[in-house]
Design goal:
Length: about 950
């Protein structure tokens, strides 16, 4: 896009006379046609629209000189700029002005059509291509640029035209075509401003085509141009140059990675000639591999640089990166080898230091020191793990190399001490003693001197441990002498006055418990021992007494140890555990002796004395068990509830709940017992136990006068244990009974239906009990239907009330039939009696129904006769049902309902059924 600081407004002049303005002798348009016109770009503060209008005013003059196509071209340029102007404010294509771009295209085409041979048409074609490109007409833009290149081989826009062709072809993924375009630009050399970008994009074209070698040549040529061998510092490059350099190095790395990696790099520079920036290429490739977590490839890349450039100043840094990379990748063996290679390549006598000053390489020397230290410690650790002679010898070698190399370094005594430790651990006790003594006495005073002297005593003790018989006894005495000499040489050492205590510890370790206790007691009675030494001695004594099963003395000794220890001491927890164990053991002993009361007292003392000890939970649990045995249920409940609150995740929580339930039952506290059984029922555990506990909880809630909680528990039981079905149905029965007693008819009927539904779905799980309960529930629902039926009175108009009565009658009969279908004798007889009562009730209702007020005399009598005729069939049906009930006696069925049917028949048919006591004539007796 062409940018101007202001607007170029065209000033037209004809023989020195200005067209702008109005004067009397102003020339006419005809005059303009006779005189040459010149266009001048004059910088004035105006707008693009004013400039374009001035050019259009000129075109209206009809002038056909060379100025005309130039004016047309400038109008097109301004239109194109106007179409592009929003791009400066927003990247959104929606803000472009397509009409201006279209106008520019038309104007450029007019210039080319009307003035095909005009000089400067190369610029017109260049701008036309820009307009096509801005309007998304890429193919036309490419065709225009092709024409420009073919028609104007000497155009100043030729390189940019080729570059723009390359850019468009690259976007279109015509990498071969883009390659040719970029090649044309690069052939022009570095004089063209598009040279570097063309080289960069040329390399990408090769890369996209898989021609990595050709691409590398282009990218390396670009690096040669960016980083000349004159020592140009990367830091002096501007941001765009640095970004281009970074992108170039990245694609070079990608190219090498797609071939043979670091071997390709070495081969490439060997074939093409070395470069002073090779380290940047290797570093970029290695970093690429690191980003992809290809640690082995990254390490090989850094190592290849080292091998190809052993004297390069950055070679040690690359070797360090080899080690770092293997470490990041989790290759400990290769890390170790890398460190060895580093020491071999860069030790102070190596060839590298013949070309570089060690004094100017503090980082390398520091890493050398660190690496030597790491190697020594690595093999030291390996020796500790595997106890292999080769590892021990290697560690000793690296320690000695360090000691010889840095004799005056302040860290060397520490390395000497580690050498002695290595030899000690390897059971080379005599060598270890020599090394310890050298550490203690051959250097100026240092922090480890006294420890080394003490360690020499320990090494002598180890020699003793390898001896047998009399030789060992003799050496033992000598070891004591060595210990005493150490104490004299280093009187301030913490172990100098602890010889006696150390002896007691050794005796304890040997299992000579009685003697260890005696020696420890002697140390305790010695005034010279410090509080810390007193603590150690009391500890030895406590351990000895504990192991001798003298738990009372052990407890007293541990109490002394605790008193002499800091509350924040790392040993305090262990001491508390031992103290708690000593008390607990006394409780066990009392329990084993049959003294349950004393046992409980000891168990409870554990919590009081050592509240944080791990064994407190066990002691509390055992105390509660003892209290239960002593029938101290109140005390047991207190301890068990405390246990529950203190140890919510303890595995014995379920058993604690059981015991609490037992204790509450023993205390005749059904509500509390119910709560505990409910806990058991809802906790994790064996299903049978949980089921029984939940059932017992519900029964106990009932006993405790908590019917609502009982109902909820039965509900929980049904949800949790739908099987065995019989018990779950029984739970529904109890819930229904509760709502019946509570007068909640809606809930009562819902749960009756739930019983029926559960039995109906039971399949093979159905039992006699579930069928019986379902039958009873069905009968109860039938009774409810009968009650609704009985409540309907026959009033005038009789037809309407009789219809309602019959509707309820059918519902009641259907309900009774359902109950009878269960074929449960007690329910069947009741359902049959109920059905008979339904018919009897309708017969009675008809006979006692309300009479019309306008009937009297003969009419009333006729009305009554009609009612009797209507009532008679229902009475007959009732008799039939009662007889059905009575007939069951032949099958051995005789219950209250059969007896009631007999009584009804005796009343209805006295001649046939003899003199029987008149039974109830309504169903109130069903309850």
């Amino acid at each position: 896009m062409i940018r101007r600081p202001g607007i170029c407004l065209v000033i037209l002049s004809a023989s020195g006379c200005a067209l702008l303005g109005s004067v009397d002798n102003a020339p006419t348009i005809a005059d303009l046609g006779k005189k040459p016109v010149e266009l001048q770009d004059t910088h004035i503060e105006s707008s693009d629209q004013q400039a374009m209008q001035a050019y259009r005013n000129y075109l209206q003059t009809g002038d056909e000189s060379e100025a005309r196509p130039e004016a047309m071209r400038r109008i097109a340029d301004l239109s194109l700029e106007a179409g592009e102007e929003p791009q400066a404010e927003s990247a959104s294509a929606d803000l472009l002005y397509p009409e201006q771009v279209t106008d520019a295209v038309s104007m450029y085409r007019d210039v080319l059509h009307q003035y095909p041979g005009r000089n400067g048409n190369d610029r017109v074609r260049y701008q036309l291509a820009r307009a096509f490109e801005r309007s998304g007409r890429t193919e036309e833009a490419l065709a225009t640029l092709d024409t420009l290149i073919a028609s104007h081989p000497d155009s100043e826009h030729l390189d940019e035209a080729q570059f723009r062709r390359g850019e468009m072809l690259f976007v279109m993924r015509d990498y071969r075509g883009a390659e040719q375009a970029y090649l044309s630009v690069t052939r022009a050399g570095a004089t063209t401003p598009f040279y570097r970008q063309a080289l960069y994009k040329l390399g990408w074209c090769y890369f996209k085509q898989g021609l990595f070698g050709e691409g590398l040549d282009a990218f390396i040529t670009l690096l040669d141009d960016q980083l000349p061998a004159d020592g140009t510092n990367i830091d002096t490059l501007d941001r765009a140059q640095r970004e281009l350099l970074a992108d170039t190095l990245r694609v070079i790395s990608l190219s090498f990675s797609y071939e043979a990696g670091p071997d390709t790099v070495a081969e490439y520079f060997s074939r093409k000639g070395g470069r002073h920036y090779e380290d940047a290429v290797y570093n970029s490739l290695g970093s690429l591999y690191l980003q992809k977590e290809r640690y082995n490839d990254a390490a090989q890349t850094f190592n290849t640089f080292v091998e190809a450039n052993p004297r390069h100043r950055e070679s040690p840094a690359f070797q360090m990166r080899v080690i770092e990379t293997y470490d990041r990748g989790g290759f400990p063996t290769r890390v170790l080898q890398g460190k060895k290679d580093f020491v071999e390549r860069y030790h102070l006598q190596s060839d590298y230091w013949q070309h570089h000053d060690p004094q100017q390489s503090e980082a390398v020397l520091g890493y050398l020191r660190e690496t030597l230290t790491g190697l020594a410690r690595h093999y030291h650790a390996a020796a500790q793990r595997g106890h292999k002679s080769a590892d021990i010898d290697a560690a000793a070698h690296w320690y000695r190399t360090y000691i010889a190399s840095f004799a005056d370094d302040e860290t060397t005594p520490g390395m000497h001490f580690l050498l002695a430790e290595l030899l000690f651990d390897a059971q080379r006790y005599e060598e270890a003693a020599i090394a310890y003594r050298a550490t203690a006495y051959d250097y100026p005073a240092h922090a480890q001197a006294a420890d080394a002297g003490y360690a020499a005593v320990l090494a002598a003790d180890r020699v003793e441990s390898q001896l047998q018989g009399d030789a060992r006894q003799i050496w033992h005495r000598q070891s004591i002498e060595h210990s005493l000499r150490f104490a004299i040489t280093f009187p301030a050492h913490g172990q100098a006055s602890a010889v006696l205590i150390r002896s007691s510890e050794q005796l304890l370790a040997l299992g000579e418990l009685q003697r260890a206790g005696e020696v420890a007691q002697h140390a305790i009675d010695t005034d010279a021992t410090s509080p810390d030494q007193q603590r150690v001695a009391w500890t030895v004594l406590a351990h000895a007494r504990f192991d001798l099963h003298d738990y009372l003395q052990a407890e007293q000794a541990y109490q002394h140890v605790v008193q002499l220890s800091d509350t924040g001491s790392k040993d305090m927890k262990a001491l508390n555990e031992k103290l708690a164990a000593a008390i607990y053991k006394q409780g066990e002993a009392a329990r084993d002796a049959g003294d349950q009361q004393a046992a409980v007292g000891h168990f409870l003392r554990v919590r009081t004395t050592t509240p944080t000890a791990a064994i407190v939970a066990t002691a509390e649990y055992d105390a509660a068990a003892g209290l239960l045995q002593l029938q101290d249920y109140t005390g047991a409940v207190t301890v068990l509830e405390r246990f529950r609150a203190s140890y919510p995740d303890h595995p014995q929580q379920t058993e604690v709940t059981r015991r609490l339930a037992t204790a509450h039952l023993a205390q005749a506290a059904p509500l509390q017992a119910a709560i505990e059984f409910e806990r058991i029922g809802k906790a994790d555990g064996e299903a049978t136990l949980r089921r029984e506990a939940l059932w017992q909880a519900a029964e106990l809630y009932t006993k405790a006068g908590e019917p609502e909680r009982a109902v909820q528990t039965y509900r929980d039981y049904i949800d949790t244990f739908p099987q065995p079905l019989e018990v779950a149905v029984e739970a529904r029965h109890r819930i229904a009974r509760h709502y019946r007693d509570a007068g909640n008819a809606v809930q009562h009927q819902q749960w009756l239906q739930a019983i029926i539904d559960a039995d109906a779905r039971a399949g093979e799980s159905r039992t006699e009990r579930t069928r019986y309960l379902a039958a009873q529930a069905s009968l109860s629902l039938a009774e409810t239907a009968y009650a609704r039926y009985s409540a309907v009175q026959l009033t005038l108009p009789l037809k309407q009330s009789l219809s309602r009565k019959r509707q309820h009658m059918q519902q009641a009969l259907a309900a009774s039939a359902k109950a009878a279908d269960y074929q449960v004798a007690a329910v069947s007889t009741a359902a049959t009696f109920l059905s008979a009562a339904i018919y009897s009730r309708l017969s009675e209702a008809l006979l006692t129904s309300e009479r019309p007020a306008n009937l009297d005399g003969e009419a009333l009598m006729q009305y009554d006769i009609l009612l009797e005729e209507q009532a008679y069939p229902f009475e007959e049906k009732a008799i039939e049902l009662h007889e059905t009930n009575v007939a069951r006696m032949e099958d051995g069925v005789y219950d209250a309902w059969v007896a009631k049917s007999l009584a009804q028949l005796a009343a209805l048919l006295p001649a046939r059924y003899g003199k029987q006591e008149r039974g109830a004539d309504h169903v109130a007796t069903l309850h």
